[in-house]
Amino acid sequence: MRWFCDEFAAMEMQVGKTSGMDSYDLMVLAASRVGPGCEELVMLPHLQGAMAPEANPKASGVFYGFTLRHGRSHFTRAIMEAVSFIVRRNNEVIEGLGVSVTDVRALGGGGRSRIWKQMEADIIGRPVLTTTNEEAATLGTAILAGKAVGLYSSVEEAAERMIQIKERFEPASVNRAIYDETCGTYIKLYDAVCPLFETRQA
After folding, report:
1. Is the dihedral of CA 55, 61, 67, 68 positive or negative?
2. CA dihedral 156, 160, 161, 162 (to 10 degrees)
3. pTM of structure
4. At 92, phi and psi to the nearest 5?
5. How far apart are CA 102 and CA 40, in angstroms?
6. pLDDT for 92-140, tens place per residue?
7. Whole-angstrom Cα distance, residue 28 to residue 17?
8. Where do the domains of the chain lie, and which CATH numbers do they carry?
C-alpha cells in the first residue's frame, strides 16, 4: 500500500495535506466502493519476494485480469484483498498442522482501517480483532520483559493482561463465495507464474 500510495496516489496525498485527512483513508474509502473480488482483478503482492507460506525470494508482484473497466480503486482493493489472502493462506497452513485458529489479531498501520479489517474477516472467515496498542514489536517486547522480570508468571498471563481488544470484526457470510473463488484464482495464479519467477535475473 505504501508503494502504491507513493507512486500512484499523488492526488490523495495532496488532498490529505490540505484537508488533514489521511491519504490511505482516502484510498481505502474509494476502494470500498468496488465490490468484493474487484471484478476479477487479482494481485500477487510479492514486491520483495514471497514470504510465508510460499517463501519464495524470487517471486514478484503481479496484477492479473485487468481490463478497460478497471480503475485505480480496483487496484487499491486488489492490493488489500491480496494481503488478506496471505493471512488466509497462513491460517490454512497453521490449521493443517492441527492448530485451531479462532480469530486474528491486527496491529500496526493496516489495523487502523476498519474497512480493511472487515474485508480481512470476510476473506479468512474468522473474526479479526484490533488492539488498543498498535505497535506489535514494542508490545511483544513489553510482554517478554514483564515475564522476564517476574511481573507475570508466564508469557500467556502477560499477554492476557497487556493486550486490550479495541474492536471486533465478524466475517460476513454474504461475501464468502466470491472470496473463496477469488482466493482460488490467487493460488492458481501463483502456481501458474511460479516457473517464470525462476527465470528472473533480479
Report:
1. positive
2. 90
3. 0.90
4. -65, -40
5. 29
6. 999 999 999 999 999 877 788 999 999 999 999 999 999 988 888 888 9
7. 17
8. 2-99+175-197 (3.30.420.40)
